[in-house]
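Progress against Task 2.4 (sequence-to-structure conversion) is shown through the following example record, which the project officer requested during the mid-term review.
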Amino acid sequence: MSVINTATCNGTDTAGCGGPFPVAATGTSPVFIVADPRTDTLYVTDFSSASVTVLDGSRCNAKITAGCRAGRNQAVGSAPQGITVNPRTRAVYVANLYTPGSLSVFRAGRGRG
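C-alpha coordinates generated for the chain above:
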Protein backbone atom coordinates (compact mmCIF):
# COMPACT_ATOMS: atom_id res chain seq x y z
CA MET A 1 0.00 0.00 0.00
CA SER A 2 1.46 3.38 -0.98
CA VAL A 3 1.59 6.20 1.56
CA ILE A 4 0.80 9.53 -0.13
CA ASN A 5 0.81 13.00 1.42
CA THR A 6 -2.60 14.35 0.37
CA ALA A 7 -1.61 17.85 1.47
CA THR A 8 0.73 18.06 -1.54
CA CYS A 9 -0.78 15.45 -3.87
CA ASN A 10 -4.48 16.00 -4.50
CA GLY A 11 -6.94 17.33 -7.06
CA THR A 12 -5.79 20.95 -6.72
CA ASP A 13 -2.12 20.58 -5.72
CA THR A 14 0.00 18.05 -7.60
CA ALA A 15 3.44 19.28 -6.52
CA GLY A 16 4.06 16.20 -4.36
CA CYS A 17 2.65 13.61 -6.75
CA GLY A 18 5.93 12.72 -8.43
CA GLY A 19 6.81 9.87 -6.06
CA PRO A 20 8.35 7.53 -5.36
CA PHE A 21 6.04 6.99 -2.41
CA PRO A 22 6.80 5.04 0.77
CA VAL A 23 5.18 1.61 0.89
CA ALA A 24 3.43 0.06 3.89
CA ALA A 25 3.57 -3.72 4.13
CA THR A 26 0.14 -5.42 4.14
CA GLY A 27 -1.25 -8.85 3.42
CA THR A 28 -2.12 -10.01 -0.08
CA SER A 29 -4.51 -7.84 -2.10
CA PRO A 30 -5.21 -4.82 0.16
CA VAL A 31 -8.67 -3.46 -0.68
CA PHE A 32 -10.13 -1.10 1.93
CA ILE A 33 -8.66 1.01 4.72
CA VAL A 34 -10.20 2.67 7.75
CA ALA A 35 -8.58 4.85 10.41
CA ASP A 36 -9.35 5.02 14.11
CA PRO A 37 -8.70 8.70 14.91
CA ARG A 38 -8.68 8.10 18.67
CA THR A 39 -5.69 5.75 18.53
CA ASP A 40 -4.18 6.75 15.16
CA THR A 41 -4.47 3.13 14.04
CA LEU A 42 -5.04 2.06 10.42
CA TYR A 43 -6.89 -1.13 9.48
CA VAL A 44 -6.46 -2.54 5.93
CA THR A 45 -8.52 -5.46 4.58
CA ASP A 46 -6.35 -8.04 2.82
CA PHE A 47 -8.71 -9.76 0.36
CA SER A 48 -6.55 -12.77 -0.55
CA SER A 49 -5.04 -13.23 2.92
CA ALA A 50 -8.32 -13.42 4.88
CA SER A 51 -6.84 -10.90 7.28
CA VAL A 52 -6.69 -7.27 8.31
CA THR A 53 -3.34 -5.50 8.57
CA VAL A 54 -3.09 -3.21 11.59
CA LEU A 55 -0.69 -0.27 11.22
CA ASP A 56 0.40 2.45 13.65
CA GLY A 57 -0.69 5.67 11.91
CA SER A 58 1.60 7.76 14.10
CA ARG A 59 4.63 5.90 12.68
CA CYS A 60 3.29 5.27 9.17
CA ASN A 61 2.12 8.45 7.50
CA ALA A 62 3.19 11.03 4.94
CA LYS A 63 5.87 12.51 7.21
CA ILE A 64 7.05 9.49 9.24
CA THR A 65 7.43 6.13 7.51
CA ALA A 66 9.54 4.15 10.02
CA GLY A 67 6.53 2.08 11.15
CA CYS A 68 5.15 1.27 7.72
CA ARG A 69 6.85 -2.12 7.55
CA ALA A 70 5.86 -3.37 11.00
CA GLY A 71 2.12 -4.04 10.77
CA ARG A 72 0.48 -7.01 12.44
CA ASN A 73 -2.19 -9.19 10.87
CA GLN A 74 -5.56 -10.05 12.40
CA ALA A 75 -7.23 -13.17 10.94
CA VAL A 76 -10.80 -12.63 9.70
CA GLY A 77 -13.25 -14.44 7.42
CA SER A 78 -12.80 -15.29 3.76
CA ALA A 79 -12.30 -12.40 1.30
CA PRO A 80 -12.73 -9.42 3.65
CA GLN A 81 -14.37 -6.45 1.97
CA GLY A 82 -15.96 -3.59 3.90
CA ILE A 83 -14.46 -2.48 7.18
CA THR A 84 -15.35 0.02 9.88
CA VAL A 85 -14.22 0.79 13.40
CA ASN A 86 -16.36 2.00 16.29
CA PRO A 87 -14.01 4.14 18.41
CA ARG A 88 -16.49 4.25 21.29
CA THR A 89 -16.89 0.48 21.69
CA ARG A 90 -13.35 -0.37 20.47
CA ALA A 91 -14.68 -2.87 17.90
CA VAL A 92 -13.62 -3.42 14.28
CA TYR A 93 -16.26 -4.90 11.94
CA VAL A 94 -15.31 -6.65 8.68
CA ALA A 95 -17.76 -7.93 6.05
CA ASN A 96 -16.64 -11.21 4.46
CA LEU A 97 -17.52 -11.73 0.79
CA TYR A 98 -17.33 -15.52 0.36
CA THR A 99 -19.46 -16.41 3.35
CA PRO A 100 -22.81 -14.66 2.79
CA GLY A 101 -24.07 -12.97 5.93
CA SER A 102 -20.66 -13.36 7.59
CA LEU A 103 -19.17 -10.59 9.71
CA SER A 104 -15.86 -10.73 11.56
CA VAL A 105 -15.56 -8.64 14.72
CA PHE A 106 -12.39 -8.07 16.73
CA ARG A 107 -11.29 -5.68 19.43
CA ALA A 108 -9.45 -2.57 18.27
CA GLY A 109 -6.12 -1.74 19.86
CA ARG A 110 -6.16 0.42 22.97
CA GLY A 111 -3.02 2.32 22.05
CA ARG A 112 -1.17 3.14 18.91
CA GLY A 113 -1.07 0.41 16.23
